[in-house]
Design goal:
The complex is a heterodimer of chains A (413) and B (337). Chain A is of the alpha/beta class. Chain A contains 16 helices and 14 strands. An 8-stranded mixed beta sheet of chain A has the order 8-9-10-3-11-12-14-13, with helices on both faces. In chain A, a hairpin with a 2-residue loop joins strand 13 and strand 14. Chain B folds into 2 domains: 79 residues, no CATH class; 235 residues, Orthogonal Bundle (MetI-like fold). In chain B, 76% of the residues lie in helices and 1% in strands. Chain B contains 13 helices and 2 strands, in the order H-H-H-E-E-H-H-H-H-H-H-H-H-H-H. Chain B has a two-stranded antiparallel ribbon with strand order 1-2. Classes of the chains: A alpha/beta (413), B mainly alpha (337). The interface between A and B is medium-sized, with 31 and 22 residues.
């Protein structure tokens, strides 16, 4: 449905992403050959259990891996930022749906290959991230306003100077102040009479921008909230601050790493609605990482199911939930109790996630799969299409090079 | 609670603590024997001894003697120092200035060097700079000052002969006035570069000896605190905003790592004061520490008691400052609860 509206343009495409971790027992293949696309304006839900590599995949977009011990072992993450709409020069018109920006002009970069300076220009500006626990992702020693302000200082120096009513060619200590790159002695320079007034105007402009960003998240009294410290706010408020911070520069892609896991259910609903509203207004694509199937079903346009460092099934939400093809997806869905689930024991997938140290060339779900055969133990399945939009990595739908083909009619374990 | 109210409340408790400390000091000192020793000589007859005892009220009960002592202190009379052959109150400020100059020099260096080294090492965890810093820090924390100081003295004073000993050159000392007793400050006030360099030059070896251990402790603490902070989510969140690594480190991680480090810095101050005793003896520094050591050996009780009383008050004030800095760094700390 979204494809038709946006012409199916791709914001980001991950190809054969491999992230390994060096551990004492060997190389852990945390993400092992993951490929998927994120289309313009869509929400892609990435589901899987703890440790399946979904967070690492999400962080790869911002290259936020601990390097060592995290190793980018291969693959690419191509990203094409939106460009200023040619029809309206960024003021908002029909063709760009009022956002002033447009996807398309295939000028994509490999996020894993660009210099770190370029990466920093994308972080927080074109790609932003919301973290799982807003209590931990906000710095306890800085007021929340100052933390949001950093995004503007980093990426919106020119706008800041314009809003402060200063000439665009402002240089020296004031510009360095507005781009948070102070040099030794700037404190003294900025205390001189002329600079002090300019600095105050920049600070006022900054406060206006921060208050604006906070107001977007429907917080009461944003101006007052700015001076508060994270510990003085509730969990829901903190997550609103995180969202304001993430969406401050109107990013093209938002990585939401379980943003509601640390919140209680009533707050969760409001935060989800907030993200949804902001996303639809700004046409931001969202990669929504979660272990909560029912939540992902509610908010996603498409769903990717991850297991042990691989994507095992991907398709539109309707396809995946109406016709799950991978035994793991089926197992996950069976484990969610519904209104018609009889009392008694809950369904669970037997066994535990395998250790990903030097995995063999076999299906990762072997040992837990009720339908596995010799084909699964000797061959490594990869994603293949069963409909144009629905891909599954299982020999149930595609013949294996060798061995007996599994099918849902026969339980082998 | 207002900051001013909090400081006032803490300061109001101070006299109570001082009285408590004074009782402990007095009792412990008197356990070591009567202070009459420094007034006696072998030729004295028992009558003369009794006369001296009566003159200094040493024939009265101990608690009466305590009250006499406290009353004296209240009126600015801290007793007679047998070692300095002068009233304690007259000598104390001069010696204090000497010790403070030394302690400040090494304390400031330890503070900045410790934080800088710790940050440098913590940001480069398990890489060469971290290992080098670790070696420097561990040796600094484990080399005894009396050994390290003498080693420096042998190398730079005895062998190479470039380092001076004592606190200043005699002729340069006589060339300027000393209103503050801090020779570096006096030299600046007098506008004399040669006196300033002389003061600094004399300070180098003693403050290196004194500050090495403190630097090591602060650096190690800072390093481990920073390593811990760098693993926190907010550091990645700061990076995700596109901030330069320099800002992530300075504004985010280091500021938080300073919180536990400040506590250690407060404790290090006591370590420094204690160290002045050794260092002043080794480098012939005419400060409180050396005076103190002589007083202990020669039973100069008035000096001893004044010193202990003074350092206790100093410690309480330093702790107050640490608490204030702590609350300023970490807003989750509420004062006065």
């Amino acid at each position: 449905m979204l494809d038709a509206k946006h012409g199916g343009a791709t914001v980001a495409s991950v190809r054969d992403l491999k992230v390994h971790f060096q551990s004492k027992r060997g190389v852990v293949h945390a993400v092992d050959g993951v490929s998927f696309d994120i289309r313009d304006g869509e929400t892609l839900g990435l589901v899987g259990e703890t440790g399946c590599g979904k967070s690492v995949t999400g962080r790869s977009f911002l290259r936020l891996l601990p390097v060592p011990p995290g190793i980018l072992a291969g693959g690419s993450v191509m990203f094409s930022a939106h460009e200023v709409c040619t029809g309206c020069e960024g003021t908002g018109c029909e063709t760009c749906e009022g956002t002033g920006r447009k996807a398309g002009q295939d000028r994509s970069v490999n996020l894993l290959g660009i210099p770190s300076e370029d990466m920093r220009r994308i972080r927080g500006d074109r790609i932003a991230m919301i973290f799982q626990d807003p209590g931990k992702a906000l710095n306890p020693t800085l007021p929340v306003g100052a933390q949001i302000a950093e995004v503007f200082l980093q990426h919106r120096t020119d706008e800041l100077i314009a809003l402060a009513g200063l000439p665009a060619d402002t240089v020296g200590a004031v510009r360095r102040f507005a781009s948070q790159s102070p040099r030794l002695g700037d404190g003294w320079l900025l205390s001189l009479p002329g600079a002090r007034a300019q600095r105050r105007r920049v600070e006022e402009a900054l406060a206006t921008m921060v208050a604006g960003a906070l107001a977007e998240t429907q917080v009461p009294n944003p101006a007052k909230l700015m001076a508060r410290y994270p510990h003085e706010l509730s969990g829901g408020m903190r997550q609103r601050v995180m969202i304001a911070q993430a969406l401050a520069c109107n990013p093209d892609l938002l990585i939401a790493d379980e943003p509601t896991t640390a919140l209680d259910v009533t707050v969760e609903a409001r935060i989800l609605e907030l993200i949804r509203n902001l996303q639809q207004r700004r046409k931001t694509s969202v990669l929504y990482i979660s272990h909560d199937l029912s939540l992902v079903r509610r908010i996603s346009d498409r769903v990717a199911v991850m297991y042990a460092g691989r994507i095992v099934e991907i398709g539109t939400t309707t396809e995946v939930f109406a016709n799950p093809r991978h035994p793991y997806t089926r197992g996950l869905m069976a484990a969610v109790p519904g209104a018609d689930t009889p009392r008694g024991r809950l369904a669970a997938i037997r066994g535990t996630v395998p250790e990903l140290v030097d995995p063999p060339a076999a299906c990762r779900f072997c040992g837990r799969c009720p339908y596995e055969t010799s084909a699964c133990r000797n061959n490594d399945p990869f994603l293949e299409a069963i409909t144009p939009s629905h891909l599954v990595a299982c020999f149930i739908d595609h013949p294996a090079p060798s061995g007996e083909r599994p099918n849902y009619g026969r339980v082998t374990a | 609670m207002h900051l001013r109210d909090y400081i006032l409340r803490r300061l109001m408790v101070l006299p109570v603590l001082v009285i408590g400390v004074s009782i402990v000091v007095f009792t412990l000192t008197r356990v070591g024997g009567s202070p009459i020793g420094i007034y006696l000589s072998h030729e004295m007859t028992p009558d003369e001894v009794a006369e001296i005892e009566a003159r200094f009220n040493l024939d009265k009960p101990v608690w009466v003697q305590y009250i006499y002592w406290i009353r004296g202190i209240a009126m600015g009379d801290f007793g007679w120092s047998g070692v300095a052959a002068a009233p304690v109150a007259d000598v104390f400020p001069l010696k204090l200035a000497a010790t403070m100059e030394l302690a400040f020099a090494s304390g400031l260096v330890a503070l900045f060097l410790g934080i800088a080294l710790g940050t440098y090492a913590g940001a480069r965890r398990n890489r060469l700079p971290d290992h080098v810093t670790r070696i420097v820090a561990v040796s600094g924390a484990s080399l005894p000052q009396f050994w390290f100081g003498i080693l420096l003295l042998i190398i730079f004073w005895a062998e190479i002969g470039i380092a001076p000993i004592g606190r200043s050159d005699a002729t340069i000392f006589a060339s300027i006035a000393h209103p503050t007793g801090l020779y570096t400050v006096d030299a600046i006030l007098a506008g004399s570069p040669s006196a300033f360099w002389d003061a600094i030059w004399h300070l180098v070896l003693p403050s290196v000896t004194l500050g090495y251990g403190a630097t090591a402790i602060i650096a190690r603490m800072m390093r481990s605190a920073l390593v811990e902070e760098l693993q926190q989510d907010y550091v990645d969140a700061a990076r995700a905003k596109g901030l330069a690594e320099r800002i992530v480190l300075k504004r985010h991680a280091r500021r938080n790592a300073l919180v536990p480090t400040v506590t250690v810095i407060g404790l290090t101050f006591g370590f420094l004061l204690q160290g002045t005793i050794t260092v002043e003896i080794i480098f012939r520094w005419p400060g409180l520490g050396r005076w103190m050591a002589d007083s202990v050996l020669r039973g100069d009780q008035a000096t001893l008691m004044t010193y202990v009383l003074f350092t206790s008050v100093l410690f309480l004030v330093v702790n107050l400052i640490v608490d204030l800095v702590y609350a300023n760094l970490d807003r989750r700390v509420t004062l006065g609860k």
